[in-house]
């Protein structure tokens, strides 16, 4: 028996006829009008109107602070993300992260309602901590906030103190906190705030002898493959490293027929010892600004920001790490580099001169721009909804550093509806973005390479690393094969439908 | 009291034993052993009250109910998530309310449109920006038939007057602008959001719109959000019965349909929880009667078809029998194919809206038994409708927590669990077959005669996937 689900069923004639009949009640616009407006949205005139808007975002590529905060909070051993505020937010964070990672994600809400809006959220915090501790037995409860708690001005520090004084949780339970208003910044800022909050709480003034280790801060990095990769690279280098906010097990735990609420994370003693490390290396910049600043000023520790996406960025990463630790870059890494460069040389004809549009978080954009230009590709439209002036300057500098950046324009604070206009008025060959960018592909026909967050509609992409040389190879494979798929699609039925490319 | 009930009650007590005293007492009221006869006084749960802080409720908020469920699917309305960036981002096309139309031109369902509040909006208010935002949207999307303003938490806390903005700007641009006060802190769950959204339908859209003629067979399909095309599959049956569906609430619907619904003869409501309010409104204000129905699984669908037909004349009643006769062989074929693979399998459900009770019959058609069922945001009237559908001693759960779901799973050992995305992957880790029963796990439709084969196929692939057998369990 042939079963037809939605992907086939509604193409049937009976449904097509139903849709036509339904129009009688819909008050639809005449087809001609729809076509006229559709064509108009592709014009320069529409683009100008679109770029004039100042008060509304349409298909923005950013999320809110507490999402980044709970993501970060889940990267420590026995740590329960705990959000002071209205409960729907936490339901959304959990859904959103699970849809990307295809993994469970636990987080707590204090379920604040109207009465908390009037009287403040102290009681919610107290009962919330008590219940969370009793039911889920965390080693650490990492508190962040929704916009509700921020607007009414809940005092996290005082509330947590009260909770301990009243004995609803043990005195020595680690309860770091961060204010994460969703009306400031985006998820990457929330990550930064939470990590800073956690490090502050864990450190608590206990600096000792240098342990010779390196702290690695991945940033708001949603590629679990990257976490495995950075640890592998550190082992290859012979560097003892502590990944701060290690979410690799949280979002990529083995199936053993057992559900573990706390499948891994940075061990708390290691995290506490982070203050005694030789240096801290952040693999993203814009999601670690406050944390690295804190580490420099409060810990007196050297920090480096080295984002190893693409060949030259990875070269710099290893060079700096080698300088820092005095350890040579091992030949195995050099061989990896050679292999991926070989692959890039082989594939360059399909990327050289291709025009790219990119949308996503700042650090991923910078890495991708760099890699694309290394292959002779041209970043043309770079849209960063959550990019700031610093990002804009850095991205422009990067474009200026290569002849392949000559046609690039950086758009901060813009969204995917702006990008839609750009793709019509100044088309490109390839689009890079998250799953929601597929609507741009639908509208403009620009093929999409799914890189970034969230990736909802393809499985396991986030399990492959995109950092380091191996990551570069994965990215090159994705890019070049998308170009080739598109070439096949365009040449079907013609002589150019080559079997060897 | 029967042993079955007593055993279940004992199990519930054990599960609750780890809670702190206050929360234990509170949670005990929300968990019960089912008594289908309604005689056992301790077998009824308390519902629609606040979730305890810190327990990890699965519930969402009023915004989710108003934007995500009720207003979001209205395809030619431009729906603004008014407030900070997150709410609209996380609810962006996640409910799969299918529609026909040109997105960004005359339909807006898969778009995320937000005023993206910044600190200055919190300090100085968001009304001025909202006014300008609506005009910008109207300029860019001239074919939008309406604009919805779905408030997020801060809007209500800072005292903005979105109603005044709506009224003023609606006059200027001459399309309905619907302010919806669905701030997430209101109420205890999604449920209040449904109610608030229903009220705004009544206040701003119902009774308007154009319908050239009416017929004695005009009905509304209410409480169907066209998830994976559900409403289309249901509409097909109603049309084959000879009824004329003049409005879908709100899957694949338009502002016009929402408006003309007041001209129907009968409201047919599938999801009672989210849309009973508008049915009552139409009953009071327009004298339109309403009835609940169930298009999951052949048994309930046949039954519903006959009950619906009974409200009409002989012609419709004959059509109804003809429809049943036409599809019965196909349904038998589905059952023949899948029942042998699913017979006797135990199901645990924890969902929302109508599914904790409406899907029971469909599972039973496949020989499966629902051993536990619960609602995220049900009310007492939902549970009253559920008790008779479940067997004696089944577990009833209201606003269950992650901890409780896991414990009941350990003890009841269901062959599959149907719940949501937040639950899905913890069940995968447990090696318990799982199906999302909010989004149909990206499948569907599940309604009607075209939906049941898909439902059966999906439950089979869930329970009988060979991947479960690959899991190497730690001893």
Q: Could you state the oligomeric state of the chains shown?
A: heterodimer
**Count of separate DSSP helical elements of chain B:** 20
> Low-confidence parts of chain A lasting 5 or more residues at pLDDT below 50?
none
The largest β sheet of chain B comes out as: 6 strands, mixed
How is the main sheet of chain A built?
5 strands, parallel
Mean pLDDT of chain B: 97
**Spatial arrangement of strands, main beta sheet of chain B:** 1-12-11-10-13-14
- What general outline of chain A do the C-alpha atoms trace? globular
User: How far is it from the N-terminal to the C-terminal residue of chain B, by CA?
Assistant: 39 Å
Using CB atoms under 8 Å apart, which protein chain pair has the greatest interface?
A-B, 104 and 126 residues
Any idea what the shape of chain B is? globular
Structural class category of chain A = alpha/beta
Total strands of chain A: 13
Please report the total strand number of chain B as a whole number.
14
Question: Could you explain the architecture of this structure?
Answer:
- Chain A is an alpha/beta fold and 501 residues long.
- Chain A has 21 helices and 13 strands.
- A five-stranded parallel β-sheet of chain A has the order 11-10-9-12-13, with helices on both faces.
- Chain B contains 20 helices and 14 strands.
- Chain B has a six-stranded mixed β-sheet, with helices on both faces. In chain B, strands 3-2-4-5 form a four-stranded parallel β-sheet, sandwiched between helices.
- In chain B, helix 1 crosses helix 18 and helix 10 packs across helix 20.
- Chain B is globular.
- Chain B starts with a helix and ends in a 12-residue tail after the last helix.
- At the A-B interface, helix 2, helix 3, helix 4, strand 1 and helix 6 of A face helix 3, helix 4, strand 3, helix 5 and helix 6 of B.
Summarize the structure.
Helices cover 49% and strands 11% of the residues of chain A.
């Amino acid at each position: 028996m042939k079963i037809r689900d939605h992907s086939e069923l509604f193409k049937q004639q009976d449904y097509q006829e139903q849709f036509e009949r339904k129009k009688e009640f819909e008050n639809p616009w005449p087809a001609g009008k729809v076509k006229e407006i559709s064509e108009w949205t592709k014009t320069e005139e529409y683009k100008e109107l679109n770029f004039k808007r100042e008060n509304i975002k349409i298909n923005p590529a950013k999320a809110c602070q507490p999402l980044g905060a709970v993501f970060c909070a889940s990267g420590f051993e026995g740590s329960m993300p705990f959000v002071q505020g209205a409960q729907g937010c936490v339901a959304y964070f959990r859904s959103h992260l699970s849809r990307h990672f295809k993994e469970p994600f636990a987080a707590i809400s204090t379920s604040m309602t109207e009465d908390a809006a009037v009287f403040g959220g102290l009681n919610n915090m107290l009962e919330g901590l008590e219940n969370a501790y009793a039911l889920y037995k965390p080693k650490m409860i990492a508190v962040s906030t929704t916009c509700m708690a921020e607007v009414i001005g809940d005092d996290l520090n005082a509330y947590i103190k009260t909770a301990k004084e009243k004995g609803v949780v043990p005195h020595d339970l680690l309860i770091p906190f961060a204010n994460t208003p969703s009306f400031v910044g985006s998820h990457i800022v929330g990550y930064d705030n939470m990590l800073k909050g956690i490090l502050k709480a864990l450190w608590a003034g206990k600096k000792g002898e240098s342990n010779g280790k390196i702290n690695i801060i991945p940033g708001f990095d949603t590629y679990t493959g990257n976490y495995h990769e950075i640890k592998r690279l550190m082992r290859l280098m012979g560097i003892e490293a502590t990944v701060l906010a290690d979410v690799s097990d949280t979002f990529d735990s083995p199936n053993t027929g057992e559900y573990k609420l706390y499948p891994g994370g940075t061990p708390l003693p290691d995290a506490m010892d982070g203050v005694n490390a030789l240096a801290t290396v952040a693999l993203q910049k814009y999601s670690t600004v406050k944390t690295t600043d804190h580490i420099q000023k409060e810990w007196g520790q050297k920090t480096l920001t080295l984002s190893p996406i693409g060949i030259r960025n990875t070269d710099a990463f290893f060079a700096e790490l080698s300088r820092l630790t005095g350890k040579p870059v091992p030949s195995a890494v050099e061989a990896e580099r050679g292999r991926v460069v070989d692959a890039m040389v082989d594939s360059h004809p399909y990327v050289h001169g291709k025009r790219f549009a990119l949308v996503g978080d700042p650090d991923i954009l910078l890495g991708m721009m760099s890699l694309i230009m290394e292959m002779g590709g041209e970043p043309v439209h770079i849209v960063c909804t959550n990019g700031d002036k610093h990002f804009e300057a850095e991205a422009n500098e990067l474009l200026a550093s290569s002849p392949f950046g000559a046609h690039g324009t950086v758009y901060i604070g813009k969204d995917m509806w702006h990008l839609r206009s750009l793709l019509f008025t100044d088309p490109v060959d390839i689009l890079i973005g998250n799953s929601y960018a597929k609507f741009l592909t639908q509208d403009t026909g620009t093929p999409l390479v799914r890189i970034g967050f969230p990736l909802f509609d393809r499985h396991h992409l986030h399990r492959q690393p995109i950092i380091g040389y191996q990551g570069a190879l994965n990215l090159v494979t994705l890019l070049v094969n998308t170009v080739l798929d598109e070439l096949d699609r365009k040449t079907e039925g013609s002589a150019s439908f080559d079997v060897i490319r | 009291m029967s042993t079955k009930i007593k055993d279940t009650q004992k199990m519930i007590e054990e599960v609750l034993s780890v809670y702190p005293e206050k929360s234990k007492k509170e949670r005990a009221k929300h968990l019960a052993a089912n008594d289908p006869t309604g005689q056992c006084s301790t077998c009824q749960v308390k519902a629609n009250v606040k979730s305890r802080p810190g327990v990890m409720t699965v519930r969402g908020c009023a915004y989710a109910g108003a934007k995500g469920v009720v207003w979001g699917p209205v395809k030619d309305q431009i729906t603004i998530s008014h407030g900070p960036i997150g709410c609209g981002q996380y609810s962006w096309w996640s409910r799969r309310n299918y529609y026909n139309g040109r997105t960004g031109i005359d339909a807006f369902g898969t778009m995320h449109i937000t005023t993206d509040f910044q600190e200055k909006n919190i300090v100085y208010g968001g009304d001025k920006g909202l006014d300008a935002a609506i005009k910008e949207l109207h300029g860019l999307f001239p074919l939008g038939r309406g604009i919805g303003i779905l408030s997020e938490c801060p809007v209500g806390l800072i005292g903005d007057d979105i109603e005044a903005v709506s009224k003023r700007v609606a006059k200027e641009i001459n399309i309905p602008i619907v302010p919806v006060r669905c701030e997430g802190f209101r109420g205890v769950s999604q449920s209040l959001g449904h109610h608030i959204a229903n009220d705004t339908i009544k206040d701003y859209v119902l009774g308007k719109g154009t319908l050239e003629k009416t017929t004695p067979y005009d009905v509304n399909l209410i409480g169907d959000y066209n998830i994976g095309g559900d409403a289309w599959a249901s509409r097909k049956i109603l049309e084959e019965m000879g009824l004329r569906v003049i409005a879908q609430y709100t899957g694949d619907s338009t502002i016009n349909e929402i408006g003309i619904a007041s001209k129907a003869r009968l409201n047919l409501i599938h999801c009672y929880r989210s849309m009973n309010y508008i049915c009552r409104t139409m009953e009071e204000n327009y004298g339109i009667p309403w009835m609940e129905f169930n298009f999951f699984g052949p048994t309930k669908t046949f039954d519903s078809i006959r009950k619906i037909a009974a409200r009409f004349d002989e012609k419709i009643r004959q059509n109804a029998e003809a429809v049943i006769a036409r599809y019965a062989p196909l349904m038998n074929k589905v059952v023949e194919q899948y029942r042998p693979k699913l017979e006797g399998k135990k199901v645990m459900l924890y969902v929302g809206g109508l599914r904790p009770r409406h899907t029971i019959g469909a599972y039973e058609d496949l020989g499966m038994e629902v051993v536990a069922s619960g609602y995220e945001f049900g009310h007492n009237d939902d549970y009253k409708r559920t008790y008779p559908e479940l067997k004696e001693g089944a577990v009833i759960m209201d606003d269950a927590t992650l901890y409780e779901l896991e414990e009941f799973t350990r003890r009841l050992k269901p062959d599959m669990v149907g719940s949501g995305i937040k639950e899905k992957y913890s069940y995968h880790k447990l090696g318990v077959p799982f199906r999302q029963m909010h989004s149909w796990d990206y499948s569907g439709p599940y309604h009607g005669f075209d939906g049941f084969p898909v439902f059966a196929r999906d439950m089979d692939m869930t329970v009988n996937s060979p991947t479960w057998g690959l899991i190497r369990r730690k001893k």
